[in-house]
Specification:
Keywords: ATP-binding, Cell membrane, Membrane, Nucleotide-binding, Transport. The protein is of the alpha/beta class and 275 residues long. Helices cover 38% and strands 22% of the residues. The relative contact order is 0.17. Bound molecules: adenosine-5'-triphosphate.
């Protein structure tokens, strides 16, 4: 399922070809992953702690090179992304804002680092703040904002470079459930309005079902992809989706898939244990 019912986009934004990761200390974080993500999809990486979600996201972002295999974005290695006029942004779990300066200056940081002049940067900052509904808070300091608002500043900082690809590593994991649900809804609106491709990491089955056009289920020890589930529910999705029968069915299926994968882990661990 894609962003609209009309003509689903089919341009591949991300091609992950047998990409794997063994950290220098020998930890095999990810078995080879093969995954293709189309432009305009909202894909969630769902799995327990340690299954390699962040590792995979960092490899997509080019922050970590695969130890084997390769990853392309719009048919290019990530470092050549700009040559095809594409940009990506990475949003971390922590908002990591500079406490000593304003919301607007925090959002402007990526443009400052690129050497963009304030006269050119400031309208982009205003636009990004408007996208996350924080226009009125541009002059405030981060500590004056709630945790949810700080996360929205962090998202605005990601959006200010006008990316086509948004990579989000459990951005709402530290927030209370009500705030998290609201931000999930806001994020979907943003995704549709900006025609973004999103890869979103979460532990939460419910968040994954609410948001995703496709869920990639992962398991740990060793980290791997165990299943992919397309969610054939049209957008926009509102609160009624969260209490629908179909939503509950998909959540139950994902829970079952995660449970089966963790039983496999236990079995492997037991069988692998010396007598
Ligand atoms: N820099 C590193 N060096 C060595 N091992 C690492 C490193 N980073 C992660 N790992 C290990 O790789 C595995 C996958 O970690 P990763 O952080 O990708 O998992 P995750 O699914 O994102 O977990 P969480 O949900 O807890 O963030 C884990 O066993 C982790 O301990």
């Amino acid at each position: 399922m894609t962003a609209t019912d009309a003509d689903p986009p089919t341009v591949p934004a991300i091609d992950i070809m047998s990409a794997e990761q063994v950290y220098p200390n020998g930890t095999r974080a990810l078995l080879p992953v093969d995954l293709s993500i189309r432009e305009g999809e909202f894909v969630t990486l769902l799995g327990p702690s340690g299954c390699g979600k962040s590792t995979l996201l960092k490899m997509i972002a080019g922050l970590l090179a695969p130890t084997d295999g390769r990853i392309q974005l719009w048919h290019r290695p990530v470092e050549q992304l700009a040559s095809v006029g594409k940009r990506l942004a990475f949003v971390f779990q922590e908002a990591t804002l500079m406490p000593w300066t304003t919301v607007a200056r925090n959002v402007r940081l990526p443009l400052d680092l690129q050497g963009v002049a304030p006269a050119e940067a400031d309208p982009k900052v205003a636009q990004a703040l408007s996208l996350v509904g924080l226009t009125r808070f541009a002059g405030q300091r981060p500590r004056e904002l709630s945790g949810g608002m700080q996360m929205r500043v962090s998202i605005a900082r990601g959006l200010v470079t006008e990316p086509q690809l948004l990579l989000m590593d459990e951005p709402f994991g530290a927030l209370d459930e009500i705030t998290r649900n609201r931000l999930d809804g806001d994020l979907l609106e943003l995704w549709q309005r900006q025609k973004l491709t999103v890869v979103f990491v979460t532990h939460s089955i419910h968040e994954a079902v609410f948001l995703s056009s496709r869920v990639v289920v992962m398991a740990a020890r060793p980290g791997r992809v165990v299943e992919q589930v397309e969610i054939d529910q049209p957008y926009p999705r509102g609160p009624a989706w969260r209490v629908s029968q179909r939503y509950a069915q998909i959540a139950a299926h994902l829970q079952d898939s995660l449970l089966r994968a963790s039983q496999d882990e236990d079995r492997l661990a037991t069988e692998g244990r010396p007598a």
